[in-house]
Design a protein that fits this description.
Aspartate Aminotransferase, domain 2, Aspartate Aminotransferase, domain 1, globular, alpha/beta, single chain
Length: 396
């Protein structure tokens, strides 16, 4: 058989081609320009209601200037891995700063958030060990488990009793790592961390929280889910990405110094990847400064999220379990979801179209997300468009 035959005959390829022909393909669309809350697409100015730029820092003058100055000093690339010639003093400064920010002994910076989960989980979960993950965990967590030599088990989303049963079934002589998202990227709901901490203690399991969508959103100055619940000391590992609230690219793991040191020497995705360019590192350092100096940004983005949940629900939309500035509009049908995405796009609002298998069956949705820098008049305009489109398509 020709290896490429399956490519040409795949259902996903066919569906993409059909959606393109119908003019409702919602992916890989280029941004011609961006100012954060508004973007230029197809030569039109559109409200951006689908970004992970929760604090609006990607266009902040201090973040931009920090990146520019770093390029002037260090150039555009480190041209090597952290393990060899790619570690800058700037990386070490960021690691120290992040550890202090999240309340852990040590932190380790990777080139992407995906690589953090791939490297951390595969380094820790060895033969005879078990990774136990929520079924709604990010794909990078699933792939990290697949790379690990240990076993992977999954439990239904936020189901503490099911997690208890899974942990109970694992022999005491096996190492156990429970991995959850702090804030779930599609539903916008928060992990029940107090219960998770207790159940992990009961069964002698270690707990890792992926706070990619929590930093900048939850906790004091956006310090994440563990800080939000007052449980920083009881969560073993905190993971974060820089491509969201930190306004850059990369990621980190934070925890006890000896554990982080072990990961540093065993995470293949760190050792065999070029390190973060100085501009990205400097941008994160500037973003942390702003997060500490301007905590009102966290309050603002959460106030916007609360307003959107309230008003979309009042219109008749199903916003699911959202508790954060991630507010899904659950439609439940792939085709109707794509049609709704297109109608919103044409009306001047960009959201994300998310369909099965990225979400469970019956959960096809429009993922909306908000920034602290969205002005009230922009939110007003978006709500008017959501109402008009919803009525026109019989969604509400």
């Amino acid at each position: 058989m020709d290896l490429f035959q399956k490519v040409r005959e795949s259902d996903r390829t066919r569906e993409a081609q059909e959606a393109m022909a119908a003019g409702i393909y919602p992916y890989f669309l280029p941004l011609q320009d961006t100012e954060g809350t508004e973007v230029i697409m197809d030569d039109r100015r559109i409200l951006m209601m689908g970004s992970n730029n929760y604090l609006g820092l990607t266009t902040h003058p201090k973040v931009r200037e920090a990146a520019i100055e770093a390029i002037k000093r260090y150039g555009t690339s480190c041209t090597g891995s952290r393990f060899l010639n790619g570690t800058l003093a700037l990386h070490l400064e960021l690691e120290q700063r992040l550890a202090q920010f999240v309340g852990k002994e040590a932190a380790l910076v990777f080139s992407t958030g995906m690589q953090v989960n791939l490297g951390t989980i595969s380094a820790l979960v060895q033969r005879g060990d078990v990774a136990i993950i929520d079924k709604d965990d990010h794909a990078s967590i699933v792939d990290g488990c697949r790379l690990a030599y240990g076993q992977m088990k999954r439990f239904p989303h936020n189901d503490i009793e099911a997690l208890d049963s899974v942990l109970e079934s694992i022999p005491d002589d096996k190492g156990k790592l429970v991995v959850v998202d702090g804030v779930y990227s599609m539903g916008g709901d928060i992990a029940p961390l107090p219960q998770l901490v207790e159940i992990c203690k009961t069964h002698g399991a270690r707990l890792m929280v992926d706070d990619a969508h929590s930093f900048g959103v939850l906790g004091e100055c956006g310090r994440g889910t563990a800080n939000h619940f007052g449980l920083t000391d009881q969560v073993d590992l905190l993971m974060g990405t820089f491509s969201k609230s930190f306004a850059s690219l990369g990621g980190f793991i934070a925890g006890d110094k000896d554990v982080v040191n072990y990961i540093q020497y065993h995470a293949r995705s760190l050792i065999f990847s070029a390190s973060m360019p100085a501009a990205n590192v400097a941008a994160v350092l500037a973003a942390v400064d702003i997060m500490e100096q301007e905590p009102e940004r966290v309050a603002r983005v959460n106030a916007i999220g609360a307003r959107m949940r309230k008003e979309l629900t009042a219109m008749g939309y199903n916003v699911g379990p959202s508790q954060t500035p991630i507010v899904p509009i659950i439609i439940g049908d792939r085709y109707r979801t794509a049609i709704a995405w297109k109608a919103l796009y044409e009306a001047g609002v960009y959201v994300n179209c998310v369909v099965e298998p990225a979400v469970p069956p019956g959960w096809d949705l429009l993922r909306t997300s908000y920034m602290a820098t969205h002005a009230d008049e922009q939110i007003d305009r978006a709500l008017e468009i959501f109402h008009t489109v919803g009525k026109n398509l019989d969604l509400i």
